[in-house]
Amino acid sequence: MEERLKKLARRRRQSKASYARAVLLEHIEDLEDAHEAQRILRRVRAGKERTCTLEELERRLGLND
User: Fold this and answer.
1) Are 49 and 41 contacting, i.e. CB atoms less than 8 angstroms apart?
2) Checking phi first, is residue 53 left (phi over 0); if not, alpha (psi -120 to 50) or beta?
3) Residue 53 DSSP class
4) Strand, coil or helix: 40
5) What one-character-per-residue DSSP string does 17-34 give?
6) What is the rounded distance in angstroms from the CA atom of residue 11 to the CA atom of residue 22?
7) Beta-carbon-side half-sphere exposure of residue 18 (alpha carbons within 13 Å)
8) Rounded distance, CA 34 to CA 40, Å?
9) What pLDDT score was predicted for residue 64?
10) Cβ neighbours of residue 29 under 8 Å, at least 6 residues apart?
11) In this predicted structure, what is the pLDDT of residue 35?
């Protein structure tokens, strides 16, 4: 893993620490997004959150031209 990190960081002209920090931050953000999506899905299934079709959204936003 250390060697892979070294190669990837070198390709991006970053230090290993800087590259690892950026990758970790991106992964944490992805996990947060996934948790939020799961929370919203639970609300939808419980009837506490509404959904709409793309067509309905476009109509609401005046984009159906």
Assistant:
1) no
2) beta
3) -
4) helix
5) HHHHHHHHHHHHHHHHHH
6) 14
7) 7
8) 10
9) 81
10) none
11) 98
Amino acid residing at 18? S
**Tokens at residue 9, please?**
């960081």
Contact of 9 with 15, CB cutoff 8 Å: yes
Structure tokens at 43: 């609300």
Domain boundaries, the chain: 2-60
Encoding tokens for residue 1? 């893993």
For the record, the structure tokens of 10 come out as 């070198």
Residues 41 and 60: their CA atoms lie apart, in Å, by 22
pTM: 0.70
Q: Residue 7 has which token pair?
A: 């190669």
Greatest distance between any 2 Cα atoms in the chain: 53
Instruction: Quote the mean pLDDT of the chain.
Output: 95
Q: CB 23: neighbour CB atoms within 10 A?
A: 13
